[in-house]
Specification:
478 residues; two-stranded antiparallel ribbon; 40% helix; 11% strand; globular; phosphatase activity; Histidine_acid_phosphatase
């Protein structure tokens, strides 16, 4: 009898899933495998290219293809419509190339049949490279950052946010950091023979936990011979990565100093801006894709209370990792009927490493007991952590020069006030003000780039979760 009940429940779940419509998605993606930051300029490797391309293929099979498992409403399945996509990456060769490789998997060449046109004089012209599709990647860059930011070990400085920089630097004076620095001194000196061609004895400490880990991690992937490789036992490699996790998470997020997570705050604003544009435009622009750095994952994880779901969210995300926000509804969707915000939900999913080889798993956000979240709840919670306009950013960061010298500190208040009185999306007045501030992102100084603060990481611990909202697989990979 019990087994029959389980089968009935499984059938019901499948039916509910089949009735669901994906209205749009926002994907935040890390770059693929790259060369070491210790030897700039860093560059995307062939392995990294393969990772992001495979991830693009995975998301094509999930959302884009005519036979997709979770097709996005009204999206073009073969010939790309650039108006339906909003793709961004910073001015950085690793991230820009990763975005381009991903898009090649998302919308592959269409061949001579679709990739051709007939001119007025009757001449048939075939697109080059078997119908290769050209998809623009919008380059974003903050006023203070430089090109090839993946060459930097820690990118908080390139955020240009004074208070965030100070907050991150405070970690190096904390009791936790100083204790870890002293406790691990002997451990780091024990691996000096492995890295002494690049790091001095003075540099070989917990202070440089990430750059040391990155150097050895890249070597383990690409170098057939490594000096004193016998020292790199599985236990030592695990310890190097765990220490790097601890070091970088603390630089990217601190519960008592939210400004340290400026990357996650600006990312949160951009996510809501894109998803709201999907709703107000009735899925005219359904797909938002951003390639960025590992610190943005860390910062958002902390702000969204994901470490309370699993300690895995305090570890380093692997190359080509992605987090996805699905805008879904069970209401009827057609050319003449589009669901109201009250009938729309947001599902959060995460894949540690390329989604083609690692499970894309669902997790609850903000300590909530349900997933997906109602749209209004999602916007309200995101509004608590978002920084989505120039004046608010300048105030939070304590900046008064450059673009902040002329910032109108009342602009965000004005935007919210006007939005509360009128909202084109038809959403509740309680969340319309949040959106009003966020939609100003399109006219500020490339604020999207502020989310790109740090270079690449991956998660360490390996354990299973068991939550009621989904069958969740481990985030970690060792």
């Amino acid at each position: 009898m019990h087994s029959k009940q389980l089968l009935a429940l499984a059938s019901l779940a499948s039916l509910i899933q089949a009735q669901e419509t994906v209205l749009g998605v926002y994907i935040f993606h890390r770059h693929g495998d790259r060369t070491s930051k210790s030897w700039p300029p860093a560059s995307l490797t062939d392995l990294g290219y393969h990772e992001v391309f495979s991830s693009g293929q995975f998301y094509r099979d999930r959302y884009i293809d005519a036979n997709a498992s979770n097709p996005i409403y009204n999206v073009s399945p073969n010939l790309v419509k650039n108006s339906q996509l909003n793709v961004q990456a910073p001015v950085d060769t690793v991230l820009q190339n990763s975005a381009s490789g991903f898009l090649q998997g998302l919308y592959p060449p269409v061949g001579a049949t679709l990739g051709s046109q007939t001119l007025a004089n009757g001449t048939d012209i075939e697109a080059p490279l078997n119908g290769f599709q050209l998809i623009p990647v919008n380059a974003v860059q903050s006023a203070s950052s430089s090109a090839n930011s993946e060459n930097s070990a820690w990118l908080q400085g390139s955020s240009g946010c004074n208070n965030a920089i100070v907050s991150s630097n405070n970690y190096f004076y904390s009791e936790e950091y100083l204790s870890m620095l002293n406790k691990t001194a002997d451990f780091y000196q024990s691996v000096l023979p492995v890295i002494n061609t690049t790091f001095t004895s003075a540099q070989d400490s917990f202070k440089n936990a990430y750059t040391i880990y990155d150097y050895i991690h890249v070597s383990e992937i690409h170098n057939s011979t490594i000096p004193s490789s016998d020292l790199l036992t599985p236990e030592v490699l695990h310890q190097l990565q765990t220490l790097a996790d601890n070091h970088e998470f603390n630089l990217a997020y601190n519960a008592s100093e939210p400004i340290r997570a400026i990357a996650g705050s600006t990312l949160a604003a951009q996510i809501v801006q894109q998803l709201n544009a999907t709703i107000t435009g009735k899925s005219a622009q359904q797909v938002g894709i951003q390639f960025g750095a590992y610190g943005s994952f860390f910062s958002f994880f902390g702000l969204a209370q994901l470490p309370s779901v699993s300690v895995n969210f305090t570890g380093i995300v692997d190359y080509a990792s992605s987090m996805t926000f699905e805008l879904v509804t069970n209401a009827t969707v057609s050319q003449t009927s589009y669901p109201s915000p009250d009938d729309i939900y947001v599902r959060f999913l995460f894949a540690n490493g390329t989604a083609a080889a690692n499970p894309l798993s669902e997790y609850p956000l903000f300590g909530q007991q349900q997933s997906p979240l109602p749209w209004n709840t999602f916007v309200s919670e995101m509004g608590k952590i978002s920084i989505g306009d120039q004046a608010s950013w300048c105030k939070a960061c304590g900046n008064s020069s450059g673009v902040c010298a002329s910032a109108d500190t009342a602009s965000s208040t004005g935007a919210q006030s006007s939005s509360k009185s009128s909202s084109g999306s038809g959403m509740s007045l309680g969340v319309a003000g949040v959106i009003g501030a966020m939609v100003t992102l399109g006219v500020i100084f490339g604020l999207e780039a502020l989310i790109i603060l740090v270079g690449g990481l991956r998660l360490v611990p390996k354990r299973r979760l068991n939550i009621t909202t989904a069958a969740v697989t481990p985030v970690a990979k060792v």
